[in-house]
Sequence to fold (872 residues):
Amino acid sequence: MEQIIANGLYLGAQYALIALGLTLIFSLMNVLNFAHGQMYVFGGFVTYTVVVQLGLPFIVGLLASAVILAIMGAVIEKFLFAPVVRRSKRDESTMLLAAGIAFFLDAVILLLFGEKQRGVPKIVNGVFNWDMRIIMPYDRILIGVLAILLIVVFIAFMNYSRAGRAMRALAQDRMAAQLMGVDVARYSMLGLALGAMLAGLVGGLLVTITGVNLGMGGPTSIKAFLMIMIGGAGVISGAIAGGFILGMMESVGLTVLSAYGDITYLVIFATLMVFLAVRPQGLMGKPWG
Amino acid sequence: MKASRLLGFSAFLLAVFVLVPLFIGATGRWDFFYTLTSVALLSVGAAGVWLTFYIGRINIGQGAYALVGGYVSAILVTQGGVSFWLTLPVAGLFCAVISILIGLPILRLRGVYFAMVTLVLTEVARLSALALPITNGAKGITSIPLPGELSVFGLTIIPAFGSLSNPRIGFYMMAVVLMIVTYLVLWRIVNSRLGHLCRSLQQNEELSASIGVNTAYLRVLAYAISSFFGGIAGAMFASIAQSIYPSSFVVADSVNFMLYCFLGGLGYVFGPMLGTFLLYFGWDLLSIAREYQLLIYSGVMILLMLVLPNGVLSLLDKKEGGK
Amino acid sequence: MTPILQIKNITKRYGGLTAVNDVSFDVRAGEILSVIGPNGAGKSTLFKLISSFVPATSGEVLFNGERISSLAPHKVARMGVVRTFQETTIFRSMTVRENIIVSHHLRSKASLLGFFLGTKQAKEDEAAFAASADDIVDFLGLQGIRNELASNLPQGHLRALGMAIGLATDPKVILLDEPFAGMNHDETMKMVGLVRRLRDERGVTVLLVEHDMPAVMKISDRIVCINFGQKIAEGTPKEIRENEKVIEAYLGSEDAAIGM
Fold:
């Protein structure tokens, strides 16, 4: 039991971080970022390159992932999303763009890093063992703690910094924020940069444990969608709740349902459908986002 | 107007039934038959996605219905010994019924919420196909016999595909016929009151309800028709490939269906057909670029989006001004 | 004779907030009745309650003695109680004429399948809708813009189009949501004339929610005034003008300048 909870927390922290980035982008731009999973994978590969191929310390790799992904996010916003949002008749057009970017990133990852599964050697050794009740390698604990730390920093940033407050105003009411003098173009760009950076950071964290490969992008995006649907799209608390809930469900499911074959996700999906039929806006979302 | 439309339609028929086979015969690119068959079938599925767009819902779940349709047909043919021609409408109807059950709750969702749920639906279909005993898990269903003869009162309408010297042409013809029928139906829907009501729904659901439209019913109806198209497309695919696996239609396929519609243009009935043709055929032609195939493909897609954010067919708008 | 519309003890609570509190009044067939009140008095909630777009916490609305308050909006419309929205709610990417034609839905005798197949009945329906739409266009004086895209119209025309959409459904009662909001004096007077003709020439009972006092005084047969979600007065324009509670409500609020 304790083991399941510990696993769930560890998974949940990673998931919440991914969902935070996605929900931030969604709330600012009303864009469902299909490329979120690819950004995560990209971040993983950057850390891998820095740590394994260049032989630099892990923290440098992590920082490199953050910086490179942030730049990528900003560029994507400025040169792709912003013009399309401006000129398109429908909101949905950004979805096509996002899907196109997902494919494009897949292609770039393939060309730059290849198809192989890549990993970074353990950053700390040893296994934590509490009386056989919780067994968890130290590196997982470290990564989990780092993820939670990042979540805390992110929330603090959104609540207490000028930029964070501006972005929250923007998310709440674009028009009103504009009237209040918030530089919409600038903070949209910052928001996407931040969202992409979070995805890259999780990639950098998890490459030390599960590794990354080209095929992980799509499924990661889907999981991220699940989380923000559970919690309510565009809501920070919802993303965190959704991340931890999915982590827990996965952890419980893999233990309890393993006897019936690989049906954990089928059960999770089915539960979600029923849940959304009752509560379309998710746990904490506003109706119709 | 009427005459020019008839002329265009005849030209299209001439092109797909005569010119294309002639061209392929002359160049010897027999693989194009396979590509164009896929284009035709995918555009049938895309027609369905387009119809859900027409009621204001972003549908990224067509892969699920294509997969279900494929399995229904494959199971009926291999285990029930049913004629493929009968399983084709059955697969469509089966999908329509399922989509009604699923649609009743989820069609209340809007915007991205609906889009995300439908995306998840494709995963549900894949995982179900893996888990259910009747679908034979990851091994899938293979060696599905080719479609037999279709005859009415002893009159052969379609010969058995096994007896054809070149079944590829047979499949091509069949797929194109299916595509034409689908788009005629779609065109008729859009230009009848049903389509006008769908448009009213797309533009303003509250107002639509207040002029007396049963919006819930209409949404489910449109979604069921959409899924019917997905189902028959999937059934046909399974029959051509003579196999179906849980991975035959995955999330990427669902996303592609959506992209075909977007790229062609959501405001135009024939948009999804054109979009499917451009993207799928383009992808196929790009295979000469080898490892750069995906890069060029997605790059062009992004570029098109920047230049023509309202679809390729929006080019027509500027010339003619309006519809 | 029973009133065409009866609002009985209707109440709406959002969480701890009571937006509409135990409001009752009747609307008689063939009259123009206005609901007035200062901003935030609960007018628009009341409007949504009557048109059944929001479920009431308690109380009910009866149309010709039949309960309509828990019906789906399209069923309410089907019975003949139709609302028009504030100006932005039209079918934006249709032309004026298309807007009106599509809104004839309730009058169709053919089924959707019939329309799809193009049966004789369907063709008759379409022809009838088109004729009626032209009739409505003439009635509202929209001839010059009948083929304009709705999204290109100025506000005054949008309001008229909203009314045209309502008329197309062949309503017994039409609910107008702030038909004069944001209009200058001339536009308002034009609209007042239109609403009158709606009743006089088409026999439609009109219930409108509005806070432009001069227009309301001019147009209404009777007025219901609400404040803080409660009915504080009901009567003819003259009675309302002299009612102290009404004066107090308006003086105590931000729109003190009611220009009576």
Remarks:
- The longest helix of chain C spans residues 120-139.
- The radius of gyration of chain C is 19 Å.
- Residues 91-155 of chain C form one domain.
- Chain C has two domains: 1-79+207-260, 91-155.
